[in-house]
Amino acid sequence: MKYFRMLIIIVILCFPALAKAQFYTVGDDPGRLKWYSIETPGYKIIYPSGLDSLAKVYGGLLEKYRIPVSRSAGYAPGEMTRIKMPVILHAYNAQSNGSVAWAPKRMDLFTSPEGYEAEAMPWADMLAIHESRHVAQMQFGMSNAFKPFKWIFGEMFAGAMAGVYPGQWMLEGDAVVAETALTTAGRGRSGDFLNYYMAAFDSGDFRNWNRWRYGSYRYYTPDHYALGYMALSGIRYRTGKADITGTYLQYFAKRPYDVISYRTVSRKLTGKGFRKTFDDTMRMYHDIWSEEKEQRAPFIPSVLISDTARIYTEYSDIVTYGDKIYALKSSLDKSKALVMTDNTGKEKVLTSFGNISGPLWHAPGSSRIWWSENIYDERWTQKINSVIMYYDLEKDRKRTFKKDGKRFCPTTSPSGKYLVTVEYPVKGGSGIEILEISNGRRAAYINAPDSLQITEALWLGDRIFMTGISEKGYGLYSTGIPEMNLTGKATGSDNEHTAAAEQADRLDKDNGTAAWNTLLAPQPVKIRRLQARGNELLFTSDKNGVNELYSFSTESGKLRQLTSTAYGATDFCFSEDGKTLYYAASTADGKLLKCTRSSDLLDRETGFSDIHRYRVADEMSRQEKELAETFGRKAREQERDEKDDMADSEPGNDGETAFSKPERYRKAAHLFNIHSWAPVYFNVDNIMEMSYDNYYDLASLGAAAVFQNHLGTMTGQIGYSAHKDPYETDAWRHSGHAKFTYTGLYPVIEASVDFNDRASRDYSFNRYNLNGAPYMMSMTGAGTEKPYVQGNLTVYIPFNLSSGGWSRGIVPQVSYTLTNDRYDTGIIDYDLIPDEENANVVRPVPTSREDGKTILRQRLSGSLRMYTMRNTATSEIYPDWGIGMETGVSFNPGLAGWFSPVGYLYLYGYLPGITPNQGLRLSGVWQRQLKGDSIFDTGTVNTLPRGLSNLGDLSNTILSYRQSAKVTADYAIPIYLGDFSIGPVFYGKRALLTPHFDWTFFKGGGLYSVGASLQIEFGCFFWIGAPVSIGVTWSYNGGPSWNSFVDRGIPMNRNYIGPVFSLSLP
C-alpha cells in the first residue's frame, strides 16, 4: 500500500509538466481575421482569408515530404489516425517557428521566413520536413500496447507518452536529422549548430549525458535540438543504420514496461548501453573535428579585447564609432545589452536589448546604430511585428523608426538619406523596401522572384546587392536602383527623390525580376552580415565548415577568404581607419571579443562552390536515398491510392498534390472540439497551477472531457465528479463542472460553473442584546435541500507592451461570482439571559425578528495590474530591475451594509544583488475596508507575515482593524551544487537559499517573520525533465503585538517550518 501511495504522489507531481506539454496554445491571431480551409489527402490546411496560394504551397510540401519523413521514423504521418491532420497557418507572426501538439492534435506553422541567420534552404521546406517528422513520431503513442488507451483517454495519452518515453531531445534531434538527411542543407550542415561542442571537446569538456541533457547554471549547454541531433546522428553514422528512430519508437510502443529501454535498444543497435554509446559519439565527433581543424590551419593571430570570461559570455553585432567598440553582450547571468568598450578596455552598459531579428548596422560617420526587432502586438500574441529601431550614440537614446510590418536587416544608403530593408509580406514572398529616413515614407520597392527569399540588402554605388535563399541555398545577387522614384544619375551617393508621394508609395511590380544578376551561384551554405568596404562586399559564411569572413570584389567578381580561426568567428567589423578587424571568436568560454591587424589577415582567393562536406550528414543522406530506393515503389503506390480516394478535388499548384476547393472555416462551428477524456475527474487548470481548496478540485472519481478549438482561442473542460460532502462527510456528492476560456475577442473571457459540490446554504443574521443594549452580531448558516451552484465570469485584457529587453504589461480585469447561497438580511433579535443555575453564563432567547430581503451570495471585483521588468538571464533568479503594481476593489452587491467593500494595493520590485545571479525582491501590500459602518470584516489579500499566514483566527482578528499592510524582503542566493545525478531518476542543478523578512502593520501594533528557505532545484525529477524545486522554509515569528494575541487565546508558534515545492513549466 505504501508503494501505491508513493506512486500517486509521483503522478501528482509529474502531471503538471505533462499537462503543460499537451494542453497549451500557441496564442491567438487577430480577432478580425476570417479563416478558410483546403484539404489534401493527408492534411486539412486552415489559413487566414486571402492566403490560398500560401496554403497550397504548404499543403503541397507537406504531401511531398509525407513519405520521405516516414522511411526512417518507423511510422508515417497519419498512419494511426483516421482524421486528417489539421494544419494552422499563422501568417501575421514575424517570428519563424512551428510546432506539433497532440491535445488536440494539430500542426501550427508560422509562415514568415527567418529574417536573419536562416538555414541554407527555403523556410517552407524546412518547416514541412521538421514538423512532418514530428507527426510521424507521434504515431507510436497510438500503436501496439498503447493502442487501447486512445479510446480511454483520447488524444492526450499519445502526447503524454511522447513526454515520458522519447523525450524532447529525441523528438527534436530526430526532426533535425530528417531535415538534414533529406536535403543538401539543414542544421546538421551548418557551421553554427554544433560549433560549441567542437570547442568544448577540444578543451577536454566531455560531460556525461545527464549534464548535456539537463544543462547547468554555471556551464553553457546547447539546446536539445543540437544534443539530440548529435546523439542520433552519431549512432546512424557508426552503425550504418537509418531506422534507429523507428527502432526506438517501436520498442517503446511494444514494451512500455521496460524502464531501461534506451539501454536495451542501444545494446541492440551498437552492442553498448546508451550512455556509453553517447560517449563514443562525442569521441567520434571530436576526432572528425580535430582532423578538419588541422586541414583549416594555420590560423590568423588574434588579441583578446574582452576580459577572460568568468562565466559563458557572448558578444555579437560589433560596430565601431570613433575609437570605441560597440557590441551586444549576454551571458548566463546577464541578459542581452548594448555595451561600449573604450580604448582603455573599460566596458560600459548603454541599454538593454530585446529579441532582435537582424544584425546591428552602422554606417561610417553616422551616429546611429540600426536594427530590426520583434515586437508583440499590444493584444494579439500571434501578431508580432519586426520593427525598425535605432540607437543614437551622440544623444544616448533609443527610438522606433517603423512600428509595424515585417521588415528586417536595415542598412543605410551611401548618403544616409534612405534606409534599405527586407520585407516579408503576409501573403508570402519577399522584397526590398527603400524608405526615406527623414519621414519614413516608402520611396521604392523591389519584388524578389518567387523562387528567392531575400535575407539582406545593401545599396552600393548604382546597385542594390543582396543575399538570398533558393532551393539550392544561399547566393549573392544584384539589381539596379529603381528609377521611377529616384531620378538623376547614380554616382555612389543617393539621387534626389522627386516622385510624387502617391507614386512613391506604390509597388513597382515590374521591377521585381528585371535586371537581376547572379554574382555567386547558390550553394548549401550560409551567408550573413553583408557589408561594404570600398567596392568590395564583405560577408560571413560557413562554407569551409566554420564561420569566416569573405570579401567579394564587385569589379573583378573574385572571392577571397580573409580570416582563418580555430572554431570560427562572426560579427566582423573593421575599425574606421581599416587597420584592425574586430570579431566575436567562438571558444569554450563563449563568443569573445577579439581583434586582428588587417596586415595579418589571410586574404586568400577561393571559390564559392568549394564548400565543406559534412561526412556524418552526407552519410545519413546516403542512407535515406538507399531507403527510398528500397521502399520507393510501395510509397508511390500508397500515395497514388490515397489521391484516388480524394473527392471534390482540383489539381494542386505543383501538378501532383490534389487539393479540395477552399471553404470558409467558420469559427463558431468549430468552437467546441473535444479531444481528450478520462474515466476520472480532473481539473487541468488547477493541476497545472497546483491551486485548490479541496482535494476534489484537483482530481476525484468521475469523468472529464477536455476541449480546444484548432485556432487555440477556445479552451475548456466539462466533467462529473463524485466525492464526499465537505459538510456532511458521510454523504457523497455527484457534481457537474464546466469551464472555458475564449481569447478570440479583444477582451479574454473566462467562465465556469460548478454544480452540487455541496448543498446550498441559507445565512441569517443575529443580534444579541444584553441588558437592553446591542452586544454583538453574528451570522449563522444552514444547509438546504438544494444543490449548490456557483458560476464565475472573468473578463480581462492582457496588454503586452514589451520591447527592448523589457517585459511590460497592463492588465485591467473585472470578475463576477454568483452562487445560490442566500442571505436573509432580516435580523433575529436575541436577549442574553443569565442562566438560572450559573449566573456567569448567559443563554440567548429569541425575542423578535426584523424583515429583510433575500439576496444571493455574489461578489464583484475589479483590478488593474501593471509591470515593467528587465528580462532575466538563464541563471538569474530575479530580474536585475523591475517594478510592478496591482490595485483593486471587491464587494458583495446588495450586502455592503453587512460586508464591507475592500480595496487593496500591491507593489513589488527587483534590484540587483551583490553577485550577478543574486537578487533582491521587495514588496508591499495594503488592504483597507472601504465602508466603516459595515457589520462584518472582509478581506481580499493576506497581510500576515509568511510564518503566520495560515492562521485563520489571527487573520480574522487582523481584519477587525479595518486596514493593515505588509512589507517583505527576499534575497535570493543560488548555490552551485556541481550538477549531480542520483541514478537516472534525479538530476540536481543548484540550491537556492533565500533569507526573508516580513513585517505586518495594523493599528496599534505589528507582527513580523524572519527566516529563510532552502530549496534544491532538480533538472530531472522522477524521469520528468521539468525543473522542480523542493525544500523547506523556516520562519521565526514575533512582534510588539505577539503577547496580546496569545493572551486572547489565538494559537501561535514562535517557529514555523514547512515544505516548499515549485514546478517551472517550460
From TrEMBL:
Secretion signal, residue range per the UniProt entry: 1-21
Keyword line: Signal
Acidic residues biased stretches: 644-653
Compositional bias of kind Basic and acidic residues: 628-643
SUPFAM superfamilies: Tricorn protease N-terminal domain
Keyword Nucleotide-binding on entry: no
Statement: the UniProt record of this protein carries the keyword Signal: yes
Region Disordered, residue ranges: 628-660
Name recorded for this polypeptide: Uncharacterized protein
